[in-house]
Specification:
Elements: E1 2-4, E2 9-15, E3 25-30, E4 36-46, E5 55-65
Antiparallel strand pairs: 1-4, 2-3, 4-5
């Protein structure tokens, strides 16, 4: 799940479907005309049985939009 959303986005989502071969993919596009920095945190869940996580992690992604 997205723990901290980007601040300057037009597209900011996690996708997991047949188009990604059932892998989780983060998609981002900055808001139109935005130049600068942006940041997102994604919480990951691995292991465990069923809906229970045995390991929770955080993936941090920083963007530097230049055009």
């Amino acid at each position: 799940m997205i723990k901290q959303h980007a601040k300057h986005y037009e597209l900011n989502e996690l996708v997991r479907d047949s188009s990604t071969n059932w892998s989780v993919v983060y998609r981002y596009a900055p808001e139109k005309g935005y130049i600068g920095k942006d940041y997102v945190e994604i919480e990951t869940c691995t292991g465990g049985e069923g809906i229970v996580c045995s390991e929770i992690g955080i993936v941090s992604i920083s963007f530097n939009i230049i055009q």
